[in-house]
Fold:
Amino acid sequence: MNAPARPATGPVLVTGGAGFIGCNLADRLASDGHEVIVFDALARSGVERNLAWLKARHGSRITAVTADVRDARAVSEAARDAKAVFHFAAQVAVTTSLADPVEDFEVNVRGALNVLEAVRSRGRGAPVIFASTNKVYGDLADVALELSGDAYRPQDGRLRVRGVSEARPLDFHTPYGCSKGAADQYVLDYARSFGVPTCVLRMSCIYGPRQMGTEDQGWVAHFLIRALEGEPISIYGDGRQVRDILNVADAVEAYVAAWRRIDRVSGQAFNLGGGPQNAVSLVQLIGYIEDLTHQKIELSFSDWRAGDQRYYVSDPSAARRELQLPEPLDWRRGVAALAEWLASERAARASARRRAEALS
Structure:
């Protein structure tokens, strides 16, 4: 099938553009000279600060649309003249999906379809690059693990060295896994069925500046925030579960590269993470945070949560090869930089509160 003519001019649409990764991408795109439409429902606490930051940095290059991706008309209007679409807007927490699977479906599946249809129906092939998740591979319960100190690792040496590749069969667990996995597959199929140039990036754990981490999502920032506030940290499971973590600047580079090379990678999905060299268990990360903050962190432990992976480390070799990505930032340097950013943000907010109280 021949792809429709691609728009050469116009803004770039970033759905969920006030969120953590979305605002970092919007910042990069605006810095590169693009006009950017930030489409966001502003439903998550703190994201309005990200939007204000973008506007302060880039002025008229940032156009804000406060709307929900479930609103097909609003999505269609925002995408009307877009030369590219990056789709980040989503319900992002497994726990929330278990509490309200219908809303999870509506946001993640219906929202993705609204984006795809907005591009397809206008007959102009703006690339759609979609933020997917490692949860499309399920809980990896079939992977035999062993304990190595304070971290799980696969018994299979090849998996230990390379990580989980895109050849891994899809296996959706929890409503969140199902909704993100369904959207993932719709995005790929719109390239096959309709010639819409699309690419899917299945992310592992992304961290970095402007991440407002919570217990349910953004755990690297959440751990740092709790440590800086002198508060205890709750761990689900035994804390030896392992993830590969990737700095947001490296993630943004991958998204920009996917757009740049869309003619080569359309219809493909790539695992995006820090890889085995940036793999760390929860308790290992907490130990490093204790070193950074020079204080002991109180921990509490609860049962494993539904769909939790004891081990997930991406094999990012395909993404690095096809998207021509540089080596990622070492996790220790990245986490130290995030700790500095969070501390400065905390100090700035405290100063602003003191000024407001003095004027009241």
In short: The chain has 13 helices and 15 strands. Residues 84 and 126 are 5 Å apart (CA to CA).
